[in-house]
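Many introductory courses stop at the sequence. We go one step further.
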Amino acid sequence: MIFNKDTAEKTAELLLQINAIKLNPGNPFTWASGWKSPIYCDNRLILSFPAIRNYVRDEFSKNIEKQFGKPDVIAGVATGAIGIGMLVAESLGLPFVYVRPEAKKHGRQNQVEGFLQKGQNVVVVEDLISTGNSSLMAVEALRAAGANIKGMAAIFTYGFDVAEQNFKKANLDLYTLSNYQNLLNLAVAKNYITEKEESTLREWSVNPSAWDVI
């Protein structure tokens, strides 16, 4: 679910402007999962554009408080959401922790890095939601550490049905600054893509794991 429509449209436009989101229906990308995709999203680029990262920080900060109430801690999911998560925590005057994909094999063998007390209310910040699996693994690590997870806030989601089901099973609310639907609507309105390319992009989103360019 998006925080609000105005933010979703503005965020989508900014991501397209800086090529954080690339649309290439005719020559698809290959994801780490092996899926073929006409879209690639790299929200790490946001950190290189001060005005845009400040916009994302501010939208996260006000909407997190509005939707979840002010938490005790902000947690970022490594590695993509560490930078923006820390900016949000700074803006809200809150402690920050981040969650590794898995526990370290040496030293203190932490998976959650930073100071976190049992029972603290945490909002998790993520950069991108596809299936939601890696994001929810971070949530489970935080819960195992005793955190009370109020919800997750992400920059962008592809809106896959499998992600919605995964978050429902995890009993976790997800809100995003923008999503695939708003992105496509804006891309058409601003002539980033043709109607034919829009059709391809919409077809992909129905069954992304089985899609391939024709």
